[in-house]
Amino acid sequence: MDYARYQRKKTIRKIWVVAGLGFAAYWAAVSCKVDFSALRRGLPKGIEFLGFMFPPDLAALAELVNPALETVLLAFLATVFGAILSFFFALAAASNVSPPWLRNASRFLLATERSLPEIILLLLLISALGLGPFPGVIAMSIGCIGMLGRLFGDAIEEINPATLESIQSVGANRWQVIRYGVVPQVLPSLIINTIFRFEVNIRLSVLLGAVGAGGIGYELFYAFRLLEYQRATSAILVILALVFLSEKLSGLLRKKVAPEIKLR
């Protein structure tokens, strides 16, 4: 096969790939009833609606401080509880620490949890516990287990086997191996990923708050429900400030803890 023929076949293959992706995108747009004309007609209405939201109700900012603090505390508690539980699931999911049957069972539970959105968990918990921050804390804590348990487990599996074998060779039991061989090596990674999860939980607590977990998310939902659009704008500004500050704080903490380690 000469080079020109090879290039021609390669070009035809690319054309087929692009055509296939284009057909898939068109089929998805038709299935989802994408209507760009409706978007064009709706833009003026959206701009008009934004006019109702300005100027923001600055007098409401003082009333939104406590809900914002509740959102931060909700995310903090969920991160702490979730990180602690995630570490034990990670130990069970690591092949160099746990037997195969326990690892497979733990990995299955972690995968199952990741496939279940936190908002579904919250709705189930609200039906059992009622509205309020407590179901939100539990829902986000369980959500932490699916994410952090997987990351922690992968970090444990990447430990140098020689380190664990040397500790076992002097007669250490399983828990001593974990205490002196596993924890010191994975601790920086655990802290960094936990800090990142706290940043995620700040955003998530706003969404769950609108569903019924309380906090600033509920205030935003309630303002829209009462058609108090300027108050809703103030709540949005508070949410943006929370997200921005959480990103800055998590970035500073990650640099302080382990500047050379990146998120997994």
Which terms would index this structure?
264 residues, 10 helices
Write up this protein:
The structure is a single chain. The protein is mostly helical and 264 residues long. The chain has ten helices and no strands. It has helices at 3-31, 36-52, 65-93, 100-114, 118-129, 133-157, 161-169, 174-213, 216-225, 229-257. The protein is extended and about 75 Å long.
Share of helix, binned: over 70%
**Which spans of ≥5 residues are poorly predicted at pLDDT below 50?**
none
Query: H/E order of the elements?
Result: HHHHHHHHHH
Distance between the termini: 45 Å
Structure class? mainly alpha
Q: For the report, how would you describe the main beta sheet? A: none
Structure annotation, total helices: 10
- What assembly state would you assign to the polypeptide chains in this entry? single chain
- According to DSSP, the number of beta strands is 0
- Share of residues in strands: under 5%
Shape assignment = extended
Residue-averaged pLDDT: 81
| Alpha-carbon Rg, integer | 25 Å
How would the blueprint of this fold be written?
Blueprint (H helix, E strand, L loop, with lengths): L2 H29 L4 H17 L12 H29 L6 H15 L3 H12 L3 H25 L3 H9 L4 H40 L2 H10 L3 H29 L7
Helix pairs in contact: 3-4, 3-6, 3-8, 3-9, 4-6, 5-6, 5-8, 6-8, 7-8, 8-9, 8-10, 9-10
